[in-house]
Amino acid sequence: MNISLKNQRILVTGASRGIGRAIARQLSESGAEVIIHYNTNAAEAEKLLNELENPAYTESCDLSDVNQVIGFIPKLVKKYGPISALINNAGIARSASDTLPTKEWVMIWQETLQVNTTALAILCKDFVEHALIHQNGRIVNISSRAGFRGDTTDYLAYAASKGAIISLTRSIARHYGKQGIKAFLIAPGFTRTDMAEEILSKYGEKFALNDIALNELTKPEDIAPMVTLLCSGLADHATGASIDINAGSYVH
Ligand SMILES: NC(=O)c1ccc[n+]([C@@H]2O[C@H](COP(=O)([O-])OP(=O)(O)OC[C@H]3O[C@@H](n4cnc5c(N)ncnc54)[C@H](OP(=O)(O)O)[C@@H]3O)[C@@H](O)[C@H]2O)c1
Predict the structure, then answer these.
(1) Which residue's alpha carbon is at the smallest distance from atom 43 of ligand 1?
(2) Which CATH fold topology does 9-192+219-244 show?
(3) Is ligand 1 within 6 A of the CB of residue 161?
(4) Ligand 1, from 39, 70, 120: best to mutate by most atoms within 8 Å of Cβ?
(5) C-beta of 19 in contact with ligand 1 (< 6 A)
(6) Spatial distance between the Cα atoms of 230 and 243, rounded to a whole number of angstroms
(7) pLDDT digits (tens, 9 = 90+) for 58-117
(8) Is residue 202 very low, low, confident or very high in pLDDT (cuts 50, 70, 90)?
(9) Atom 45 (ligand 1): residue with closest C-alpha?
(10) Measured from the CB, is residue 41 less than 6 Å from ligand 1?
(11) Ligand 1 centre and the CA of 112: distance in Å?
C-alpha cells in the first residue's frame, strides 16, 4: 500500500514537541505541506521545520486565549491557501488535587477545558466552514484513553476535556459526511513525551510498563502512522471512529 499526501496542506497543532512533532514529521515525509503550530516553543518548531524536506511553515497561537484562536484558521487559509486536514493534537494535562481550594481548582479546570476542548472546537468549526467550500476535508482529534476510561482525581479536568471531544468528533462525522467532511478520533494511552514525564519521574518506568500489555512504552512515532493513514483518504469509511492506541492497557 502506497500512501501519498502530495497536494495536501495539513495543520498540526502542538507540533513543536511530543506526539504532534512525530505526526508533523511523518505527514511531511509522506508528501504533505505541513503547518507546524506551536505555543511558546518557537525554537523547537523552527528546528523541526529545518529538518523537513517538503515545504512547511511554523505558526504560533496560544490556545488558552480564545481571541487568538478565533480567526486562526481563516488567517492561515488566506496566507497559505486551502487546508485539506486539521490535526488537533495540542493539549495540556495539569494536575489539580481535589484538596485544592475550589477557587484554585476551578482555574485549572477552566484552563484545561479552554485549551483541550473550547479551542479545539473553535478550530473544528472554522475548519468545517472552510472545508464545506471545497466539499472535502479531514479532521483528526487527539483525545486520550482518559476520555473513555476516566482518570485519577488529580486529572478530573483532563479526562472531562478529552471526553467532550469524543462526542464533538462523532457529531461532525455524522452531520457533515455528505458534504465531504470526515472526522476521526485517536485515543492514545501513556506515551513517552514531556507530558508523560511528570508521571514517569513520580512513579517510575516499571509502574507504567505494568499497566500495558506490550513490553515497551508507546512512543510518539507509534501514534503518527495512524494519522497519516486517516489523512490519506484510504480510511474514509471509518469516519466517526475512535481509535485506541494504548498498548492494550484499556480495551473497551
Ligand atoms: N503523552 C501522553 O501520555 C498522552 C496520552 C494520551 C493523550 N495525549 C494527548 O496527545 C496530545 C499531545 O500530547 P504530548 O504528550 O505530545 O504533549 P507535550 O509533549 O506536552 O506537547 C504539547 C504540545 O501542545 C502545545 N501546547 C500546550 N499548551 C498550548 C497552548 N496553550 N496553546 C497552544 N499550544 C499549546 C505545546 O506547544 P509548546 O511546545 O509551544 O509549548 C506542545 O507542542 C495532547 O492532546 C495529549 O492530551 C498524550
Answers:
(1) 14
(2) Rossmann fold (3.40.50)
(3) no
(4) 39
(5) yes
(6) 11
(7) 999 999 999 999 999 999 999 999 999 999 999 999 999 999 999 999 999 999 999 999
(8) confident
(9) 91
(10) yes
(11) 11
pLDDT at 154 over 90: yes
Distance (Å, whole) CA 137 – CA 78: 17
Instruction: Kindly state the percentage of the chain with pLDDT values over 90.
Output: 96
Q: Ligand 1 atom closest to Cα of 62? A: 32
> What is the average pLDDT score of the chain?
97
Fill in the amino acid letter for 32: A
The alpha carbon of 88 and the centre of ligand 1 are apart by a number of angstroms equal to 10
Helix spans in 30-155 (H)? 42-51, 66-69, 72-80, 102-113, 119-134, 145-149
Q: Alpha-carbon distance 74 to 81, whole Å?
A: 10
Residue 1 C-alpha to ligand 1 middle, in angstroms? Answer: 30
Are the beta carbons of 61 and 69 closer than 8 angstroms?
yes
> Alpha helix locations (H) across the chain?
18-29, 42-51, 66-69, 72-80, 102-113, 119-134, 145-149, 156-176, 194-203, 205-210, 224-232
Contact 39, 62 (CB under 8 A): yes
How many secondary structure helices (H) and strands (E) does the chain include?
A: 11, 7
Share of the chain above pLDDT 70, in %: 100
pLDDT tens-digit series, residues 35-60: 999 999 999 999 999 999 999 999 99
Has residue 233 got a pLDDT over 90?
Answer: yes
- Pocket flag, ligand 1, residue 144 (CB < 6 Å): yes
Give the pLDDT confidence score for residue 203 in this predicted structure: 87
